[in-house]
Amino acid sequence: HSSTIRRPDTVGLLDQPVRPYKETACISVLVNINGVDAYVLIDSGSTTNSMTPEFAHATRAPRITLTEQVTLQLGCVGSRSRINYGTRVPIDFGGLKGHVYFDQVNLDRYDCILGTPLLNRHGGVIDFFRRELHLSNGRSIPAI
């Protein structure tokens, strides 16, 4: 026996919930990148490390022209950008020192984004409850 009752597509109107800052705050940290403290988003959903062209210019980071443009696909359908340049610069934070490759990307609010390449390489674990980034070397970096 089957029902032919058609249910409405919407149940009614609803305002998006107002969430307290504690529930929406991202994990951002200060990281010394190319000798300058950068305001950095820790992003486990980003498959690249990114730096703004402005931060790269201000810190005199060498600009590497990519042989082919790379598509940067964002989380929304149809939301894309192109990556034309990158850079490789020293970083120093949480006991980690070394050169890291960054794509140069127009970012909003942050100087850089550290994504899965760095998090996987250094065992990064984002702790939203304590608002820290834990690294495999035993160090924890508090969010700002």
TrEMBL record:
<dbReference type="InterPro" id="IPR021109">
    <property type="entry name" value="Peptidase_aspartic_dom_sf"/>
</dbReference>
<protein>
    <submittedName>
        <fullName>Uncharacterized protein</fullName>
    </submittedName>
</protein>
<dbReference type="Pfam" id="PF08284">
    <property type="entry name" value="RVP_2"/>
</dbReference>
